[in-house]
Records
---
Amino acid sequence: MSYYKIDSLEHYFKMYKKSVREPRKFWDKIADEHFTWYQKWEKVIEFDMQEAKFNWFVDAKLNITKNCIDRHLARRGDKTAIIFEPNNPEELAQHISYNELYAKVAKMANVLREQGVKKGDRVCIYLPMIPELAVSVLACARIGAIHSVVFAGFSSAAVSSRINDSECKMVITSDGSYRGNKVIDLKIIVDEALEKSPCVEKVLVVKRTNSKVTMKADRDIWLQPLLDEAVPNNVAEIMDAEDPLFILYTSGSTGKPKGMVHTTAGYMVQTAYSFKNVFNYEENDVYWCTADIGWITGHSYILYGPLLNGATTVIFEGVPSYPDFSRFWEIIEKHQVNQFYTAPTAIRALAKENIDFVQRFPLKSLKVIGSVGEPINEEAWHWYNAHVGGKRCPLVDTWWQTETGSIMISPIPFVTPTKPTYASLPLPGIQPVLMDELRNEIEGNQVTGSLCIKFPWPSMARTIWGDHQRYKETYFTAFPGKYFTGDGALRDEVGYYRITGRVDDVIIVSGHNLGTAPIEDAINEHPAVAESAIVGFPHDIKGNALYGYVILKEVGESRNQENLANEINQLISDQIGPIAKLDTIQFVNGLPKTRSGKIMRRILRKIAEGDFSNFGDISTLLNPEIVEEIKNGKL
Ligand code: WT7
């Protein structure tokens, strides 16, 4: 019986039980059989939940790129590793074989070393979805530099704060990026960011859009001429199992983003294992995940997971609406995609368009379709299942987080019967539990609670860069001895999980994880603003949209409120990025607060939703009268 690949429900239950009874043996077997190591581990895991210290595959030595690339060369050298589909459908797609990927990564790794990047240095990557992004990530991993990919939709202020937090010494960017019919001048954003990031010594620039750029002497270098000179082979750095592989920022409940640190061996083992099982990848399949590599989904399931399995993975530069709303379906047909992984927000947007956009395409190549990023509502689930999956492809609703590194709860196609809106069962090795308000574990089925994980898993983030205390407090104190996900969930009568949404101050908008605090910080920078509070409210396409309550400094501020609202959104756009703009802004004279000064977001959420039915007991508030006033203001 294989440990690595599950092929029946019975097999799943067997492996699951084994993984709970003997987690060390379970992960030991998986790590042992499918990877290349310079040296194996002394112990599978050493950990201390209270202190939030986790060491997986203790003392093992490896390089993840040897496993992603070199290991496949003998058998799959000519196999396509990456299919690059450009933004413009007229531009030719590129097929990059494993041999070619090896040479590209080796050259890039040599360039990085020549430019003074060493093991442990941080490199910020701010690039569009082009092959150079994949190559840069892998080249960092090759030489042991820690990559910090920042989504190329973030503003210069967001880039700068992320660079400074982890003291990156290099930025890899491009002149610009294409998105639909727009060109975004990335290099200009980087230049602006670097005015406040003196730690950066070198900027490597990829030419993509031929946008006009200014190259700062001694700092900025065009990448291509360096690559042309570089040697196409490279000796990989020997990494310890627990050496950091990358930092990826995610929002938190304070204004400062959290630099989640993922390490090498555990991340490798679990992303590979979960990819193989959740997508049922077979040797000649073409796999496509539409996420951006700037998010964890792209790290784990465009790059590392697929490449570790010797897969063919599609990198798409564009957007689902360009040149029209059939772009996704056209690409599936063009490259004969077998596994397709996208987000509910994209599904909802596409489902709104004329059905012909999808019905024109038979989509017969598809075998498995997947969803990630937020709860998928019933309607979107059925549309996706019927019109994309042809009611023939299992739909895997995969629950996980930046912090978990890998998919945690998901159906396994052709193994786990799916149920609309349910992420279903935990993968082997994952022990979810539901907790009540008194911090007791809720046993049995047909229950709801806060979702926690009670045993460590290999691909968990190990710390927050530079702030282990915050890591401990955020994830390991609410429910002592357990990892708290921040999500609420229900468990149905057969033990299937349905994720109901965040129970903390994070709002998921179009699949993007946004903290209320950083947005409020941005709004509060407006000179006319005294205070603000952000809540989410249900939105047809985005899942949630943002509703801002804003108190102005001067009562009856004479300026036009529409102008103020625009200025506030511009500030948010500059500080964080356009994804965090508010859908609705309501100017108010106060916010409902508890006596300890905590804003009662629950009430604000209800008002934003237009649900005035039951605010609960508001008599204990500091200012109960404000609730009525805000409600009337909304009406
Ligand atoms: C949060 C994590 C995991 C990669 C993308 C997002 C929500 C994620 C699902 C799902 C319901 C989901 C959760 C989670 N979420 N997948 N299948 N069903 N909710 O990563 O930005 O770290 O966000 O996304 O609320 O905590 P992230």
Note: The chain has a mean pLDDT of 95.
---
Amino acid sequence: MNRRKFIKNTALTGAGLTLGNSLMGCDEKTSEKTKNTIINSENGSKTSLPLVIATWHVKEATAKAMEVLQAGGNVLDAVEQGCMVEEANENGQSVGKGGLPDRDGNVTLDACIMDKNGNCGAVAYLQDITHAVSVARKVMEDTPHVMLAGEGAKQFAISQGFEPEDLLTETSKKEWEEWKVEAKYKPIINIENHDTIGMLAIDKNGDISGACTTSGLAYKMGGRVGDSPIIGSGLFVDNEIGAAVATGLGEEVVKTVGSFLVVELMRQGKSPQEACEEAIGRIVNKPNSNYKDFQVGYIAVNKKGETGSYSIHQWFSMTKFQNGVNEQIQSDFFNKS
Ligand code: SD4
């Protein structure tokens, strides 16, 4: 179906918007405003832009991103700065400073970022630099590459002015030392994942960007890289369609190229919620899937500003900031047994 027929886009003031090439392009009057309402002509549902969603309960991060958007900042700045809030938060033990280390005691970060033009940048196995998402953005903007890893990523960050620092806090060090007593590696559903952040935002013009940042799974093997820096797995943005971001056991997300899958399902006409559910279905319906032992969750947004989230197990949540309301929304989930 022609999407222009499918969506009617109007300003809050009642002034009509010119659709032009962009589905949600806005005229001069409305570009001065910070808000925009989209009406889905199929079911009459309304969505208001801008909007920000993020994995887990990260209201300060979504608030920061919304602040950027409401000040007229660009959507890429919004997701970067939103993620930076959690990277700097030492109490979040799955992202940035304070992240739980690998089994050797090294905190290693994975992050990526993607803009409305399909540009992307990523860092994997980055050590000693808190704002991995900002290094990922530098990779995107200032190098001919998409991903830098390990020592090369760190040296690149330092060359760009990032200050190296020890990311292992006393609290995380103590927990790692306690873990070492038994040294059993087992992903714990919803525990080591908490506060890992994937963020998607749409500005008032309907332009989308996304970012993802994590210290990965606690007590992973040295050198392990998860889904979060892998474009298409941890994050995917297609400004024509929508965007998705993943959290949970990265190995399972990579095996199904999860975020790209969610966006492609939306391209085929599924709502963000349906797309997230089908992507989880691809994991749990595999022959011999041991999904009972791990968590994966997706959040997604489409070009109309509709959102969805779904996980394998209970207690995954999404933070959503839209229309002045910044709220944590519990996700529906597969495993109801
Ligand atoms: C990983 N997907 O490294 C990350 C972990 C995560 O919420 O997202 N936790 O596998």
Note: DSSP finds ten helices and 16 strands in the chain.
